[in-house]
Write a structure and sequence with these properties.
Layout lengths: L4 E12 L2 E12 L3 E5 L6 H8 L7 E6 L2 E2 L5 H7 L1 E3 L12 H12 L8 H4 L5 H14 L14 H14 L4 E5 L7 H14 L4 E5 L3 H4 L5 E6 L2 E6 L1 H6 L1 H7 L10
Parallel strand pairs: 3-8, 3-9, 6-7, 7-8
Antiparallel strand pairs: 1-2, 1-4, 4-5, 9-10
Helix pairs in contact: 3-5, 3-6, 5-6, 6-7
């Protein structure tokens, strides 16, 4: 069962010139919850993620994480507090082996080692750190590819590596931005299996256009449209909501995937 409030936005807004991308959004997430955010293209979902995680400052409003006001904190500070995200496009270092990608992520997040880049590339990283990183790769199913150059991975395995990078930072909340984007059907099945295993370990928030995949994964769906959070609730109820069907698919379109 979900626990105490872990992440909250209050009256959060963000504009770019005359465009209001996020408009007075109130959002609450409880520890242990798995939640989805859906909406048509341009609804403001990714911008809202960027505000929550510190990549964009809001024009107004407040972000609370574990009861603390983090509105003016940097993305790095939020990561160290346990708020970690992935991106729509896979973001990994193709020129490094898989394992070194993970070690680099851990060291960069550790302020004590922030300037010790040689720690990554030589033999100076500890066997304990390597073990932790290997355990994380095992968790996402690519431990057997730890020495493979990242550029040689399939796109699905790169997505797994990106999730491993996030997990290596020991998140309390993991925010996944379209984790199924660009994947084949078998790759989608693999990532869905991984996300189902993760929801029992930590708090998840997922933006995804393949809504049929979300309904069995999350306990709550929130719907954004034109920068506003227009409704939220049980996934099945949300998908039957006539307002949601109109803004997401159009009145005469009953398909449930994009």
């Amino acid at each position: 069962m979900p626990g105490d409030m872990i992440l909250e936005s209050r009256e959060v807004s963000k504009s770019f010139g005359e465009l209001t991308a996020v408009d007075s959004v109130d959002y609450q997430l409880r520890e242990g919850e798995s939640a989805g955010i859906i909406g048509p293209n341009g609804a403001g979902k990714t911008t809202f993620f960027n505000i929550l995680t510190g990549l964009f400052p809001p024009n107004s409003g407040t972000i609370l994480f574990r009861g603390r006001n983090v509105t003016k904190m940097s993305a790095d500070q939020r990561v160290r507090m346990g708020m970690v995200r992935t991106f729509q496009l896979v973001s990994v270092f193709d020129t490094l082996p898989v394992l070194d990608n993970l070690i680099l992520a851990v060291v960069r997040a550790d302020t004590k080692n922030r300037n010790v880049i040689r720690f990554i590339l030589g033999s100076s990283h500890t066997s304990q750190m390597e073990k932790v990183c290997m355990d994380t790769l095992e968790m996402v199913g690519i431990a057997d590819k730890s020495r493979v150059l990242t550029s040689d991975l399939s796109y699905g395995d790169k997505r797994k590596l990106e999730i491993a990078l996030a997990l290596a930072l020991k998140p309390r909340v993991l925010l996944l931005d379209e984790p199924l984007a660009g994947l084949s059907d078998p790759e989608i099945a693999d990532i869905m299996e991984l996300m189902n295993s993760l929801k029992d370990r930590l708090t998840l928030v997922i933006i995804e256009h393949k809504i049929s995949q979300l309904t069995g994964l999350v306990s709550r769906l929130s719907v954004m449209h034109e920068g506003r959070l227009i409704t939220e609730g049980d996934p099945d109820d949300i998908l039957r909501d006539p307002v949601v069907r109109r803004v997401y698919w159009g009145e005469d379109d009953s398909s449930d995937d994009t």
